[in-house]
Amino acid sequence: MKSSHVPANPQSTPLSAPPTTPLAAPSLRANSPLPLAALTPHSLYILLYHRGTPTPSNFHWSFYHHHTALSGGSKFHITGSAARWISAHAETKAITAEFLLVGLVRVAATGEEQQDLVRRVITAEDGHLNETPGMRCRSRLRDGCERLRGVGLMRFESWEALQGECEGFGNEAAEGCERNEQPRPVWESRVCGVQGLVGL
Predict the structure, then answer these.
(1) What tens digit of pLDDT does each residue of 171-199 get?
(2) Which end of the chain is flanked by fewer CB atoms within 10 Å, N or C?
């Protein structure tokens, strides 16, 4: 199996501190899922899901590539257990209403013409899921982030910094998920430097 390690991008943005307060989206209806129009078109998000336990940083991790408010986007994740992992990718127009969604972290702005490239890079190792020792949803997403960085679609200094930022956000937002508060929060990654970047 080919290694998914990718050398650091020399144009990576500097590290920033983990989030302390999720970003609040304006003009949202209380107790309703976040409308897709509130997400940035042609952007890549990391999604965190509650596992139903009080353990901090214990999330299910997945990618979501948002296209537009009209067309929705693509969710990429794996399900199963050791040696029985399967890919569970799907197109969706209701990502923000998914059960046990803790929140979304925007990690990249992409071009409309890069939709197929994003899919190919994320799913490149799908045929080898059960050949990788210690495979988990988080390690699978980590490897996808490294490949995306390798082709210039993501910018971050280190996976450890990005993981820490996501977990800091997720741990703060988890209580709201437990209470089924809507809408679920969105964070613009500082580690990936996406603030102000718009998909084209």
Answers:
(1) 999 999 999 999 999 999 999 999 767 76
(2) N
* DSSP string covering 134-160: T--HHHHHHHHHHHHHHTTS---S-HH
Q: Are 156 and 149 in contact (CB under 8 A)?
A: yes
**What size, in residues, is the chain?**
200
| Other C-beta atoms lying within 10 Å of the C-beta of residue 6 | 15
Give the residue from 36, 20, 132, 31 showing the smallest Cα distance to 75.
36
Task: Identify the pLDDT of residue 28.
Answer: 56
Q: CA 88 to CA 62: how far, in whole Å?
A: 10
Taking a C-beta distance cutoff of 8 angstroms, is the pair 123, 75 a contact? Answer: no
Cα–Cα distance for residue pair 170/181, rounded to 1 Å: 14
What residue type is 97 in one-letter code? A
- Judge whether 62 and 144 are in contact, CB under 8 Å: no
Q: Tokens 């997403």 sit at which residue?
A: 141
Rg (CA), the chain: 16
Residue 176 phi/psi, 5-degree rounding, is: -65, -35
The rounded distance, in Å, linking the Cα atoms of 55 and 4 is 29
Q: Which residues contact 168 (CB under 8 A, 6 or more apart)?
A: 18, 19, 20
Give the HSE-up count for residue 163: Cα atoms under 13 Å, Cβ half-sphere: 18
Show Cβ contacts of residue 50 under 8 Å, excluding neighbours closer than 6 positions. 59, 60, 100, 101, 102, 174, 177, 178
State residue 21's pLDDT score. Answer: 42
